[in-house]
Amino acid sequence: MKYTGIFIGLMLTVKILSSQNNIMISNMNNPNETPIAINPAHPNEMISGANIYNCYISLDTGKTWTLKEINSTYGVWGDPVVTIDTSGNFYFFHLSNPAIGNWIDRIVCQKSTDKGKTWYNGTYAGLNGTKIQDKPWVTVDRKTNAIYLTWTQFDAYNSSNPLDSSIILFSKSTDEGNTWSKPVRISADAGDSRDSSNTVEGAVPCVGTNGEIYVSWAGPHGIVFNKSLDAGKTWLKHEVFVDSIIPGWCINISGIDRSNGFPVTACDTSHSPYRGTVYINWADQRNGSTNTDIWLSKSTDGGDTWSDAVQVNDDKTHRHQFFTWMTIDQTNGYLYFIFYDRRNYKGDTTDVYVAVSKDGGNTFVNKKISEKPFLPNKDIFFGDYTNIAAYNGIIRPVWTRLHNGYLSVWTDISNLKNTKKPLHTKKFDFEKKTNPEYKYTYLTYSLHKSSIVSIIVYDKTENEVAKIKDNLTLPSGKYYEKIKINNLKLKPGSYKLKLFINNELILVKEIVEFD
Questions:
Q1: All domains of the chain, ordered by start, with CATH?
Q2: Is this model's pTM higher than 0.70 or not?
């Protein structure tokens, strides 16, 4: 399908709040899930994004950012991915929510030929009746300019029906995103449709030194790998086992709504001594359910065999490191990782770290890059991933910060290329500084179409005592409610907060008993 026109959307200049090297990209529109891409031809140009329709543009290596809200007739429904091709076109991929069609029924690709100022309405891949197309990621072959796209197809989302399954699909564009090839299945083994550890998810592709396409994902058999040596025409008949991911794709992190191990695949195409090495980075809990760690496995034979996993985080604690992402600076072969880290605190207070390996994943230096920690709240959706991009010593990690009920997106402009040893900084204890939990409660929910919403408070005997929303019609979108409990004027006791969408009970939440 060809582009149908250019959409010129809302453009806002964001006032940047900066302290030393941390740059707040934006705190508007409840942002989370943060991809980033740097233009190798002009590294001052970079684009990031966040759920649902946030696009961030920087023309000065990430020091200042402009927010643009994008739109498409196919709908914009999260899971943003950004990349750039060799012609200088930026691409913003996302899920769909069309006015005519079905919720997330295709993967949408929108292109900008002017550094993000304007975006084409988009093309798409994967439309297949009522089946769900979810969790995309992309890569570009820098020699041919082909764009490779992988994602998960659900027969039915969050279905417990054993007849419903999930598979990994692949499609490509050889004409700068104007058209997409018919999707092909690349996972011999299917998963269930529950969006859980037995679902096949998290397919991240990359390109090898001779145009090979490499991709790994998580599923019922752990982390597995597949490859194509002919630009995606044919694939291995059965995927290669890489490593276990324990307890699976889904991992529990206190204070986080949901979390996953998300295997990230990358290949060194530089002229470093490690040229051709394929790496997979992920998080899991093999060291205990309260001790998530960051891992790396590598292959030096094109993915036929894989090394034992090595630990990327270098702390000696039994605390969580999670939501990792990896990139390679293809000018020198250095590996860069971003992840959230709780090594410095008890409880859920969280820092952001970057790890660097200059020797092909044999050793790692960890550095804390967040200048202030934050305390997330499990009642607010935090997103499913972070991201990091690097080119010629310009390293730009991007992450979501959730503190005191507010979401924001950040980057760091430190010179990480010359990192030699960890940075040790003063510890903070945000648990003692935040408002008591009983003062506020939070709700996040999504509407796939215009719906009637009610949020009602009930006492122990199921009597209605307060209404937050009463049969209010809201348009499609993702919603975030911060509710001040004191304003409800309730008597001391325990209560239940209930969310109804189109008169159907969707969620019941206990409100903390107050004194």
A1: 1-130 (no CATH), 133-432 (2.120.10.10), 437-511 (2.60.40)
A2: yes
